[in-house]
């Protein structure tokens, strides 16, 4: 197999948005408790945050973190999670069938964000609650002082307002599983009211607000939902959300390798719908996508089963990712970068233990899943400007998407003058020689890092370093053309410095 790409730094797609490398912390399973927060852990700092996890999060490189859900937020009373910990109530969490202790809440989350250096992305409950509670939360978080809620925050030790700019107006409100599911009209109306009212408080012009889009492209009202919601909210919000999770259906791993095709179609559909609403309204404004949940998720895995009823922080959704999953995951990242002209925020769901790149044991170690590596490399080297790439690639047949190009790639011109190409060989069987026409850039050193392996190889508690990227020495440079050998089923980061 042989594939070829070309690009020119003069022909660009978009600046890579900082928020593209977001992640997500939900009160779900062990994401918070014994994930990021475990006061009894030997590495815990004075805030109860696990230093071993903080170190891995920094290495992973998320830029923004969405919190506190997810389905959880639709039954959440944010006041339960602030103030003295001994006074915080235990509550039933109907979304996940567990007990929430509220030992971690908004103040702890803000400490976490400051410690790692990420932007907070806060979701409000539009399931069991509505406008007033959203306003109260906003006033507690962002108003400086002199009112009930802002002074309460100060009495809890946080003098300075949090200044949270990015807010999700509810979560997956179209889903029958959602506490307080709404019709598109009901949701569109309330989302618009919340958006307009939040903007009446401090810094309203400066807020970035996300309306809920469809929970997946497969939802029965996909498209119609976005149309109705945006008809109500077009002037008051900035983003419409998209969520997508992939796993092999009926063992069809070949189609699974091409999952990014679905993500592309999803993005096309949402943008077409949003732009159609804008056109009808004769608006110059563009609504962009916040792809605020994406990942590989084996929704049929036993780890997704219901835990002991009303237990505290049980193991839920603890997927263990394989080398194959990491390659598909990398391909999803490539799509987000390629479409970053309109996908201007995104969150890998989630951060720790729950369908996550980082795993922990309570009281024990933390380690990197296979999916950790594509994310860390993309966040580190995928900064700057996305370039227009022309590609010529052999194809492979899939049951779900027909013939699909084996090569999936994107090129990013980095601010320091280097160029990074991320390339996935989606063919499970056949290696490929990738020729990169680099005649438009200065080619000094070329280094390639490649992640591949046995399809099912995973990093586990007992064998935490089985899968990791290695230096790929099969590179030659001749007359402005770089040739790299890409193994079958591989994720590759090619740095042209
Ligand atoms: O990320 C896991 C769950 O997936 C989230 O709680 C929900 O929003 C989505 O359905």
TrEMBL record:
From the Swiss-Prot or TrEMBL record, what is one GO molecular function term?
A: alpha-L-arabinofuranosidase activity
Q: Which InterPro entries match?
A: Alpha-L-AF_C, ASD1_cat, GH, Glyco_hydro_b
Using the record for this protein, list the coiled-coil segments as residue ranges, or answer none. none
UniProt keyword annotations, A-Z: Carbohydrate metabolism, Glycosidase, Hydrolase
The record's Gene Ontology biological-process terms are:
L-arabinose metabolic process; polysaccharide catabolic process
Q: Cite the Alpha-L-arabinofuranosidase C-terminal domain residue spans from the record.
A: 292-490
Keyword Hydrolase recorded? yes
Q: Which Pfam families match?
A: Alpha-L-AF_C (PF06964), ASD1_dom (PF22848)
Tell me the domain of life. Answer: Bacteria
Per its record, the protein catalyses: Hydrolysis of terminal non-reducing alpha-L-arabinofuranoside residues in alpha-L-arabinosides
State its Enzyme Commission number(s).
Answer: 3.2.1.55
Using the UniProt record, name the top-level EC class of this enzyme in a single word: hydrolase
Could you describe the subunit structure of this protein? Homohexamer; trimer of dimers.
Q: Which family does it belong to?
A: Belongs to the glycosyl hydrolase 51 family.
The protein's name in its UniProt record: non-reducing end alpha-L-arabinofuranosidase
Record lineage = Bacteria, Bacillati, Actinomycetota, Actinomycetes, Glycomycetales
């Amino acid at each position: 197999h042989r594939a070829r790409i070309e690009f020119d730094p003069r022909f660009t797609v978009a600046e890579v948005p900082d928020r593209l490398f977001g992640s997500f912390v939900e009160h779900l399973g062990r994401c918070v408790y014994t994930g990021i927060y475990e006061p009894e852990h030997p590495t815990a700092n004075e805030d109860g945050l696990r230093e071993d996890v903080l170190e891995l999060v920094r290495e992973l490189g998320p830029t923004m973190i969405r919190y506190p859900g997810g389905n959880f937020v639709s039954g959440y009373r944010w006041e339960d999670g602030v103030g003295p910990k001994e006074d915080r109530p235990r509550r039933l969490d109907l979304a996940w069938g567990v007990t929430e202790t509220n030992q971690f809440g908004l103040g702890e989350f803000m400490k976490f964000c400051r410690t790692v250096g990420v932007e907070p992305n806060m979701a409000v409950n539009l399931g069991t609650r509505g406008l007033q509670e959203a306003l109260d939360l906003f006033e507690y978080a962002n108003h400086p002082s002199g009112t009930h809620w802002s002074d309460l925050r100060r009495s809890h030790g946080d003098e300075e307002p949090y200044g949270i700019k990015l807010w999700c107006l509810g979560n997956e409100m179209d889903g029958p599983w959602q506490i307080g599911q709404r019709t598109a009209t009901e949701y569109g109306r309330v989302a618009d009211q919340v958006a307009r009212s939040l903007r009446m408080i401090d810094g309203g012009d400066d807020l970035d607000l996300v309306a809920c889009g469809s929970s997946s492209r497969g939802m029965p009202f996909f498209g119609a939902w976005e149309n109705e919601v945006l008809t109500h909210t077009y002037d008051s919000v900035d983003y419409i959300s998209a969520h997508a999770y992939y796993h092999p259906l009926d063992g069809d791993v070949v189609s699974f390798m091409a999952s990014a095709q679905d993500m592309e179609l999803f993005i096309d559909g949402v943008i077409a719908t949003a732009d159609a609403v804008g056109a009808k309204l004769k608006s110059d404004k563009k609504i962009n996508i916040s792809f605020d949940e994406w990942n590989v998720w084996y929704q049929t895995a036993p780890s997704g089963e219901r835990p002991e009823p009303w237990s505290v922080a049980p193991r839920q959704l603890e997927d263990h990712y394989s080398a194959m999953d990491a390659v598909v995951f990398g391909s999803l990242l490539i799509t987000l970068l390629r479409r970053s002209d309109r996908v201007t925020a995104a969150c890998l769901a989630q951060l720790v233990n729950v369908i996550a790149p980082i795993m922990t044991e309570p009281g024990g170690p933390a380690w990197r899943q296979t999916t950790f590596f594509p994310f860390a490399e993309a966040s580190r080297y995928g900064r700057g400007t996305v370039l227009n790439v022309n590609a010529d690639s052999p194809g492979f047949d899939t049951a779900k998407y027909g013939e699909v190009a084996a090569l999936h790639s994107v090129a990013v011109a980095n601010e320091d003058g280097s160029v990074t190409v991320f390339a996935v060989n989606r063919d499970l069987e056949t290696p490929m020689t990738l020729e990169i026409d680099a005649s438009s850039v200065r080619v000094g050193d070329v280094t390639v890092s490649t992640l591949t392996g046995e399809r099912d190889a995973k990093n586990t508690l007992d064998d935490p370093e089985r899968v990791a990227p290695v230096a790929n020495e099969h590179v030659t440079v001749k007359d402005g053309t770089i040739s790299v050998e890409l193994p079958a089923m591989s994720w590759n980061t090619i740095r042209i410095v």
